[in-house]
Amino acid sequence: MTRSSITGGVLALAVFLGGRALVGQSGPGGPPYTPAQSMAMIRTEPGFRLELVASEPDVQSPVAMDIDEDGRFWVVEMPGYPLDVSPTGRVKVLEDTDGDGRIDKSTLFADNLRLPSGVMRYKKGILVTSPPDLIYFEDVNGDGKADTREVVLTGFAKTNPQHAVNHPVYGLDNWIYLAHSGGSEPVIYRELFGDKGTDLRFAAMPDGKALDAKGRGVRLKPDEHKVEGLSSRTQYGNAFDVYGHFFAHNNSIHQRHEVIAARYLERNPQLLLPSAMAEISDHGNNNIMPITHGARFDLLTEAGQFTSACALTVYSGGAFPDGFEGTTFIAEPVHNLVHRDVLTPKGSTFVASRARDDMEFLAAQDSWFRPVNFYIGPDGALYVIDYYRPYIEHPEWASSDLQKSPEVLSTGKDRGRIYRVVATTGPGATRTTTRPKLGSATDAQLVEALGSPNVWWRRTAQRLLVHGKRRDAVPALVALAARRPSAIARLHALWTLEGLERLEVPQVVQAMKDPDPGVRENAIMLSERWLPQAVVSDALLAMTRDDNARVRFQLLATLGSIDTPASQGAQEQLLLAGIEDEWVQVAALSASSDRAIAYFDRALQPGSALAALESPGRAKFFDRLGGVLAARGKSDELAKAIGAVTDPQAPAGDWWRASLLEGMARGLSGTGDRRKLAGSHGVLLTLATGDQARVRRAAVMLLGVSNVEPGAAATAAATQAARAAADRSMPADTRVDAITLLALIDAPAHQPQFEAVIAPNEPEAVQIAGVTALGRIPGAGTPAFLLAKWPALSSNVRTTAATVILARREGSIAMLDALQQGTVKRWMLNFGHTRSLIMHRDEGIRARARTVLEEAPEARAARLARYSAALGGRGDAAQGAGVYTKYCAMCHQIDGKVGVEMGPDLSTVRHQPMPVLLANILEPNRSIAQHYETYSVERTPGDPLVGLIGDQSPTSVTFRQGPGVTTTVRRSDIKVMTVVPQSIMPESFAEQITPDDMAHLLAFLTSTPRTAAR
Questions:
Q1: Residue 294 backbone zone (phi > 0: left; psi -120 to 50: alpha; other: beta)
Q2: Deepest of 292, 739, 886, 948, by most Cβ within 10 A of its Cβ?
C-alpha cells in the first residue's frame, strides 16, 4: 500500500469523524439553491419534466397537501420539526389566480398547531392531523381564515413526528383512513416524544366507546362516530389502488399490502398471525440509486437502501404514458429521490418490481431536496412536496454531533417547494391548467366525474355526493352502476350509493356478475350488509369457481361470516383450490376458531385432500391448525390431535404430524400456558424417543412448552434418551433431541452427561444442546463450569453458554469477574448479553457492568485510527466473502438470502462511502435502527421474554429472539413491554477482526456483484 493511499484513508476517516456536521450543508457553490437552480439538478425519467408550482415565501416547511373541488391547495407546514413541539404549525391556502400554473396567492388559514402532519378536505372545511388530535377547521364567515376549530378524534401518541398519525385519505368505501403506526419508543428524547397516547375517543363523546389502536392504522366516519382499527400499520403515508386495495410501508420497508382486513381476523382471536401485511417488493428494500452531491448519510442510513420511505402513492391520474397506471411512487428523502415500482397480481396479493434498473423516476444532485409527500392533481400530474432542508433524519437516531447541536436541525425551515411532474408525451402533454369547479357542479356533473380516468375527479365527486347527502343523484347513480361505460365508473357508482344509504340488493347481486374482477371483488364486500338474505348468500355461493384469485380470496373471507353447511362446503372448496397461498389459509381459518377443529376432522378422513399429498402449503396449514387448537386450550381437542399423530389409521406421512405438533408448540408458547397437555405427556414421550426424526423433534418442542410430568413414562423415556445421547454412532440430531428431552425430564440427574458432551470432539449441535440443558440446573455450578470451558468453546457454543450464564444473578457476577480478569473478552458477548448486564435489575450488577463494559473515548479513538488503513482500497472482495460469512452472517443477510435476519440487511452498502460504513461497523451503538429496537416483555400468563419486535396484527405481536427463533404473543397476554436502548451489534466487534480482514470485508460489502458468499 502506498503512502498516498494510507494518507487518503486517514484523511477520509478524519473528515467523517471530525466534520460530519459540514457534509451536505451550504458552502461555496453548494446548497441551499434557488428553486430554479435546484430544479436544474433534478433528473427525471425520459418523457417527463418538472415544473415549479410554489416556493418560499409562499410556502415554508410543507409536509402535506390536498386540492379541493375548486382547485385550491391546502398545505400543511411543519416548521417545528424535529424538536420544537410548540404550536408553530400552520395550514395555508394557495391559489393560482391567473391560470399560469404557478401559485400567486397564499393565505394563512389556521395556525397554532403542534407538529401537524396531514390534511384532507372535508365538508366545508378540512381535517388536520396534529397529535394527539384529528381536528376539523372551517371558515364560517368567508374571510379565508378558520373560525371553527373542533377536535374530532383524540388520543394519538405525541411521538416522534415521523411516526405520528398522519395522511388522512378518503377511501373508496367512504371511510377516512389515517396513516398510523402507534408511535415509537424514544430513548434520548423521552420528555418530548415519550407520550404513548391513549385509547382513541371522539371528543364529542368522551364517555363513548374507545379504540385501542396502538400499532395499527385507523379508519373513521366522523358523522357516525365510528372508528375502527385496521389490521395493518403504516408510517408516513398510505395508499389505495383503483379497487381499494390498501398499501402501506415504514421507513425501511417501502411496500406492503394489507391482505386481509381486521374485521375478518377479529372473528378468530386464536389465530396467532404474525402480520396481516405481505411485503411485496421482489427487490427487497435496497438497490436504490441516489445521485446526490455531497450527501450526508447518518448512522441509521445505509447508502443505497431505503431508510426513510414515505408518501406511497398509486398513480391513477390518466395523464401519464401507457404502463404508468397503477404503478407506485415512493419518496426516499434521505437519498433525495423518488422510486417507482410496477405492481403485478400474485394470488391474493401483489408483487412490486422496479420500473427501471438503470435509474430512479426522479433523483436530485441537490442534497437539500427532500421529497416527503405526493399528490395526484386534477390535471393528472404528480405533485411533489419538497421539505427542502439539509437534515431530515430525526436526532433520536442520528449521530451525537447533531444531538449536541439541535439548532442546526431547523436550518431551512423558512424554505419549501411544491413541484409537479408532467408527461411530455401521451395525454399529459396536452393538459390544461384551468381550475376545476366541482364546488358548483350539478348532481349530473358529479355523477359523470365518477367515470373520470383521474382519481382526483372520481374521489372528489364521490366525497361531495356522499358528504353533501345529494340523494337527488340516486337515479343517475343507479343508471351508471347498471350500464357499462367503464368498470371504474360502475365501481364508484356502487360505493357512492352505499355512502348515500341507497344501495340495494339487486344492484349488488348484479355487480357480482360484472365482467371486471375488481368490481366483483368489491361487490362481495358490499354484500356483507345483507349476508342473512338467501338471495345474497346464494349469489355468493355461485362464485366459488371465479377465475380471479383475489375474487376467490375475498369470497372466502366473506363466507366466513355465514355459518351454514353450504357456506362451510364452499369455504373448504376455496381453501383446497388455493391452499398453497398462505393468505387463503388465513382467510379460511379467520372464520372462527371452531373452523380449525372442523378442518382437522376433515383432514383425518380417508381420502382427504388436505393430508393426501405433502406440499409446503399443506404443511403450513397443519402448522396453523395446531396453533389455533393450542390457543383454544380445550383439553379434549388437544388430546384428539395428539392421538391422531399416533393413529396408524390416520393419513400416512410424518410431515403433517410434525407440522401439527410444531404449530401446537407455537400456540402454547404464544399463550404462555404450560398446563394444556397434562394428560398427553405419555404419548408425547413415546414420540419424543421414536425413530421418526421430524415427529420426534416436534414432540420434544411441544414438551418443552408444556413441561414433563414425573412418573414411570418419564423414567423410561429418560433411560432411552440417556443411551441415545451417549451413543456417538447416533446421528447428531438424534442425540440433540435426546439431550433436550433429558433436560426436560430431570436436568440435575443428568448433569454429568451434559457436561461430558461439551468438548471439541463432539458435534457443535450436540455441544449446544448440552450447554442449553445445563441452563435448566440451578446454582452457581453451571456458570463456573462453562467459564472454565470458555477457551475451548467455538463461537456458536460460546454464544449459547453466555446466554445460560447470564440467565441468573450469580452467573452475571461470575461473567463480570471473568471480563475484569480478561478470561472473557468483551467482543465475545453479543448484544443480548451486554444488554442483560448493562440493564440488569440488580443495581449493583448494573453499575459494575457499565464500568466494565463501557469504553473510554480514548480507546474508541485509538480503535478507529487502527482501522483507518482499511479505507485505502487494498481489500480483496473474494477474501472478504469469507470474512462476512465468519463474522457477519450470524446476524445479517445479503439480499435476504445469505445469513440470518436479525440486524439490517447489508445488501446495498456497496453504495455507502467507506468512511461511513467503517464508522458504522465500529460504533454501532451511536444510534439504534428503527425496527431493530429490542423489547423486554412481561406477560400474563407466561415467562418473560426479550426480543426484537416484529410484525403485529390486531390480536398478536411477534418477537424475534435469535436466529430463526420467534415467539408470537397475544396482545391480551402482554403485561409490560419496554424498549431496550442498545444496538443489536456489539460495539466490541472491532476486537474480533484484523485491519486486513476489515479491508477485505469493506471490499466485499461494496463490490458488485457480491456472489462469493453464496
A1: left
A2: 739
Q: Which pLDDT score, from 0 to 100, does residue 868 have?
A: 65
The three three-digit cell numbers of residue 980, written as one number? 431496550
Residue 959 buriedness (CB in 10 A; 0-12 / 13-18 / 19+): buried
10-residue stretch averages of pLDDT, the chain, 1014 residues long: 28 28 43 96 96 97 97 97 92 94 96 97 97 96 95 92 92 97 72 86 90 91 95 93 96 93 95 91 82 65 77 96 95 95 96 92 95 97 96 69 69 95 82 83 97 97 97 96 91 98 97 97 98 96 97 98 95 96 97 92 88 91 94 87 90 93 88 68 89 93 86 91 92 94 93 92 88 92 92 83 92 94 81 74 80 63 65 75 77 68 62 60 51 66 69 65 72 65 52 79 70 42
CB 147 within 8 A of CB 172: no
* Cα atoms in the Cβ-side hemisphere of radius 13 Å centred on 410: 12
Q: Do the Cβ atoms of 32 and 368 come closer than 8 Å?
A: yes
* 706: nearest Cα among 810, 791, 630: 630
Q: How far apart are CA 754 and CA 742, in angstroms?
A: 9
Q: Are residues 237 and 167 in contact, defined by beta-carbon separation less than 8 angstroms?
A: yes
DSSP state of 281: B
Cα 612-614-619 angle, rounded to 5 deg: 110
pTM: 0.80
**Nearest CA among 589, 608, 677 for reference residue 639:** 677
**318: alpha, beta or left, given left = phi > 0 and alpha = psi -120 to 50?**
left
Single out the residue of 177, 162, 190 nearest to residue 216, CA to CA.
177
Helix (H), strand (E), coil (C) string for 610-656: CCCCCCHHHHHHHHHHHHHHHHHCCHHHHHHHHHHHHCCCCCCCCHH
Between CA 346 and CA 549 the distance in angstroms is 8
How far is it, in rounded angstroms, from Cα 574 to Cα 584?
A: 8
d(CA 737, CA 748): 17
The residue ranges of DSSP E strands in 315-348, in sequence order, are 328-332, 337-346
Calculated CA dihedral for residues 33, 39, 45, 51, nearest 10 degrees: 150
Residue 725 grid cell: 445421547
Residue 371 grid coordinates = 421529497
In eight-state DSSP terms, residue 398 is S
Per the CB < 8 A criterion, the answer to whether 704 and 688 are in contact is no
Report the distance separating Cα 506 and Cα 512, nearest Å.
10
Residue 25: what pLDDT?
Answer: 37
For residue 421, count CB atoms less than 10 angstroms from its CB and return exposed for 0-12, middle for 13-18, buried for 19 or more. Answer: buried
Helix axes 809-821, 781-789, angle to 10 degrees: 30
Is residue 43 exposed (0-12), middle (13-18) or buried (19+ Cβ within 10 Å)? Answer: middle
What's the rounded Cα separation, in Å, for the pair 723 and 121?
74
Give SS3 for 331: strand
Scan for cell 404513548, then name that residue: 196
- Alpha carbon distance 54, 101 (integer Å): 9
Q: Phi and psi of 150, rounded to 5°?
A: -130, 120
Residues in the chain: 1014
Say which DSSP state 171 is in.
-
Instruction: Select from 973, 957, 953 the least CA-distant residue to 263.
Output: 953
* CA–CA gap between residue 902 and residue 250 (Å, rounded): 17
Q: Which H or E element spans position 385?
A: strand 382-386
Angle at Cα 333 formed by Cα 331 and Cα 339, nearest 5°? 35
